[in-house]
Amino acid sequence: xxxxxxxxxxxxxxxxxxxxxxxxxxxxxNDTGAVIILDHERxxxxxxxxxxxxxxxxPVSQAWEQPVASIMTPDPWTCHDDQNVADAxxxxxxxxxxxxPVVNQAxxxxxxxxxxxxxxxxxxxxxxxTLGEIVERRKNSPVNTPRRR
Length: 149
Hints:
With 149 residues, the protein is of the alpha/beta class. Helix content is 38%, strand content 21%. It has 6 helices and 7 strands. The strands form 2 sheets. A 4-stranded mixed β-sheet has the order 1-2-3-4. Strands 5-6-7 form a 3-stranded mixed β-sheet. Strand 5, helix 4 (85-95) and strand 6 form a beta-alpha-beta unit. Helix 4 (85-95) packs parallel to helix 6 (124-139) and helix 5 (115-121) packs antiparallel against helix 6 (124-139). The longest helix is centred in the last third of the chain and has 16 residues, at 124-139. The model is unreliable at 143-149 (pLDDT under 50).
């Protein structure tokens, strides 16, 4: 099965100049754990709910007004929308990510593949195995290792 066949909808996106507060609200309003960060329609990063919790410099109100680019994961790993779901799950496991931006052949973002998408629309056991790999490797790797290509 192809990645594009299991995506739950269009991705939540924000400009790289958006504030952390605006992106957090977008996550809440769209019931999503990840927002794609764009600069002039070009993928430049991804921010997850985990990034907000672990990378926000302080809980004071001024920190929430920082640009989201200050806490995003730049140049995130991606998969193609016409790629096999099992292959995308391998990328997620190998790179320790729970959300994977999906791009088409023109490199435009068409979605975000999540473990939820895999579990609900493809195979629960594949999602579980992928999560197990992510957690196991994360326990054995240095804290806050950047996730880059």
